[in-house]
Design brief:
Layout lengths: L4 H13 L2 H8 L3 H15 L4 E2 L6 E2 L1 H29 L3 E7 L5 H14 L3 E5 L7 H6 L5 E4 L8 E9 L1 E6 L19 E4 L8 H10 L5 E4 L3 H9 L5 E4 H6 L6 E5 L8 E8 L6 H18 L2
Parallel strand pairs: 3-4, 3-5, 8-9
Antiparallel strand pairs: 1-2, 5-12, 6-12, 7-10, 7-11
Helix pairs in contact: 1-2, 1-4, 2-3, 4-10, 5-10
Organism: Hasllibacter halocynthiae
Pfam families: HTH_1 (PF00126), LysR_substrate (PF03466)
InterPro entries: LysR_HTH_N, LysR_subst-bd, MetR_PBP2, WH-like_DNA-bd_sf, WH_DNA-bd_sf
């Protein structure tokens, strides 16, 4: 089997665009050429990659595996390309980051470690003190990038999607709610809710679940570190709602169970990286964004 990078990009484009016509436009190909190319890839694989009767086109089981390979390989190839471009174009600059997602430290540090190795001359700093006025600070050029789940219409700013996640309920194994298949807002009315020390409006459990339902927990306890939150939950001191990738990525704490949050349509959030429009295409910024997309994918697959 001979698979080329263009084959990976082809399958990814068809999946993202939902069909051959739009994918052909995105790849600057004719629909006929793209269809012929897809048949050639499927001949290499030995089975169909898409369910063609579905609208939009849906990946087959083999297609899902092919896409996972594309999502793993292509960002690394793009990052490698950027590194070589940096060698010829220079790499000095500044990357000061404000974070509106408290849990994001869990994946941001590995991202910054990889970024530092690729761009040692870029001045990197994290500004947690600006976390909840990040976008105005970005417009004033006090910071260069803001991690946020609440994009806003703001002149001169660009929002690059990073990844989607689902908030999940976490309780001790013996907790009565641990037996539920899913958790609703009313279930938290009698609970001590352990959260990060940020305003309620910035917490998914309040903005997406409790506040719309008019429900409040019996008490709220604020804790800085994810590992400590999970230790307290495991010891029966309260319950928590955390991003699914955080729960999967923290394997050192046993004695807890995770349950989905249920509401009409479910609860899914998207994290963005906000930059000034003119900075988004700078080589080191583009490299950081690629790393910021790749690292969470690793956590989500744990």
């Amino acid at each position: 089997m001979h698979i080329e990078l263009r084959h990976l990009r082809t399958v990814r484009a068809i999946h993202e665009e939902g069909g051959l016509a739009r994918a052909a436009d995105a790849l600057n190909l004719t629909q006929s050429a793209l269809s012929h190319q897809l048949k050639g890839i499927e001949a290499q694989v030995g089975q169909p990659l898409f369910v063609r009767r579905a609208r939009p086109m849906r990946l087959s089981a083999a297609g899902e595996r092919f896409l996972r390979a594309a999502e793993r390989i292509l960002p690394e190839i793009d990052a490698l390309r950027d590194e070589f471009e940096r060698l010829g174009a220079g790499a000095a600059g500044r990357l000061h980051i404000a974070i509106e997602c408290h849990a994001c430290y869990e994946w941001l540090f590995p991202v910054l470690d990889g970024f530092r190795r690729a761009f040692p001359e870029v001045d990197v700093d994290i500004r947690p003190g600006l976390a909840f006025e990040g976008l105005p600070a970005l417009q004033r050029e006090e910071v260069d990038l803001v991690i946020t789940s609440d994009p806003e219409e703001a002149p001169g700013l660009s929002f690059a999607p990073l990844f989607d996640y689902a908030p999940v309920f976490v309780a001790a194994e013996g907790h009565p709610l641990a037996e539920r298949p899913f958790i609703e807002a009313v279930d938290l009315a009698g609970e001590t809710l352990i959260t990060y020390p940020v305003p309620e409006a910035r917490l998914d459990v309040f903005s997406q679940l409790l506040t719309p339902a008019g429900v409040r927990p019996a008490a709220r306890r604020e804790v800085e570190l994810t590992a400590v939150i999970l230790l307290l939950v495991a010891s029966g001191r309260g319950v928590a709602v955390l991003p699914d990738w955080v729960v999967r990525g923290t394997r050192g704490t046993g004695g807890t169970v995770a349950r989905p949050i249920a509401r009409p349509g479910g609860v899914t959030r998207r994290l963005y990286a906000a930059t000034r429009g003119e900075d988004a295409a700078r080589p080191f910024m583009a490299h950081f964004l690629r790393l910021a997309r790749t690292e969470p994918v690793k956590l989500q697959r744990l």
